[in-house]
Amino acid sequence: MSKITNNIINYIRSYSRYDLKRESLAWLKIVKFYLPVAIPIAATAIAVFIYIKPIPLTKTYLAIGQGGGMYEQMASTYQAYFVTQDLDLELVKTEGLESGLQQAHDDTSRVDSSFVTSGTATAKQYPGLVSLGSVEAAPLWLFYRGKPIHVDDPFEYFSQKSIAVGTEHTVTHRMFTTMMALSNPGTGERSNFLRLAHSDAANKLRKGEIDAMFIVDGFDSSLIQSLLNDPEIHLMDFTLADAYVRKLPYLQKVTIPKASINLSETIPSQEIALLATSVNLLVENTLHPAVQWAFLIAAQDRNLKTQRFFTNTGPYPAYQDKAFPLSPVAERFYKHGVPSFFSYLPLWLASLIDNFWVLLLAIFLIALPFVKKISGLRSGASEKLLWKHFWELRHLEDLLGNSSTPAETTAVIQQLQALEIGVSHCWVGAAHMRHYYNLKRCVSSSLQDAEKQLKHQMETNS
Fold it and tell me: Cis link prior to 317 (omega < 30° from 0)?
């Protein structure tokens, strides 16, 4: 073992044996000394901590509609990212996205975030919600059985046929109603417009029990893929897609190239034009900033890792639908991207710095002088404690001078003895060590004087 190591070990042993206890007692006395100031400072710190909420303390609940489609697929990737950041995201299945939106807006509901498709809701309807932007494209699909159909207005064509239009409070039902009313005003609800869940509608279409089904879902949805690869099922070509986009700006035209579904069997046999809306992620305006950042980064990661079928959509996330205002966190994300320091810090801490850096800087600048003066705090407390004992000694000397009886002098001696014990247990800083020994000598001298005075009084009285 080297000499340096031995010296270090010996120093630690010496410090532990002689100085550690005295140092601990010193800080205990310092805490007691500054307690009147420390209490309001601690209360202020706790209040600031509660105000800024640095760590999300509750689980996040995301409404995903009926489940089994693109919304659940997206949410599952978000959930996986949340796990990496020690955040808890629970997926909540609802009757439809409209139902999820209503729950997110309801203060009594546990749901605090929801997907919504463009054109189905506005901030006027849900003033407590803000947008994190569009996170995916959602095509409008119209599948049917029988011979291929070539018409300009498929909604008019199927207005008299049995067609599944989605259950109430779903995006599918809302979009079908909007599209039907656009080209065929006054159509309203009809008995042949069947409100079926997506899976039920697909089963009935395959069995030939209905003529068609309308659905809003992603290309990668397992249900959509099964229908696209079914030789008995056809996909409607929206030949007037450009006209629909002019009427409804939140829509966009997308295309399925010929044979892009199955190259060997040439599915589809021709290029097909579709319409697509965007899927937006809405959250409560009080949702913790760290959770909002988690959603945005998860959506960005998913976009980078996903091969997109429709090349003219994205990249996501993006602020495409202006029906809802962006949250302050989302505004910073779209203006400046993800700050570089997010890569080196836990998400909750990075979010805290991003959202409250001005406040944190102010606290740091205020606290910095105090941090630098920690040794001064020790020195100040040491000095105050010493002078306190000096004043006690001065007071006892005055009492001694006015003591005219042995009883009075004895009382002063007892107090001087107590002071001597207190001084011997008093911790002082190195800078005040000479004052400490001076005080001990003064107390000892005063005690000797008091004992002489007592002896003299005893002799006089006898």
Answer: yes
Average pLDDT, rounded, for the chain = 84
DSSP class of residue 325 equals P
pTM above 0.85, yes or no: no
pLDDT tens digits for range 165-206: 998 888 899 999 999 998 888 777 889 999 998 999 999 999
User: Rg of the chain over CA atoms, in angstroms?
Assistant: 39
Q: Are 82 and 298 in contact (CB under 8 A)?
A: yes
Q: Which residues contact residue 124 at a Cβ distance below 8 angstroms, ignoring those fewer than 6 apart?
A: none
Q: How far apart are CA 134 and CA 131, in angstroms?
A: 8
Q: Tell me: pLDDT of 224 over 90.
A: yes
**Would you call 373 helix, strand, or coil by DSSP?**
coil
Domains annotated for the chain, with CATH where assigned, are 1-52 (no CATH), 60-338 (3.40.190.10), 373-462 (1.20.58)
Going by C-beta distance under 8 Å and a sequence separation of 6 or more, which residues neighbour residue 216?
117, 138, 139, 140, 141, 166, 171, 172, 175, 277
pLDDT of residue 193: 94
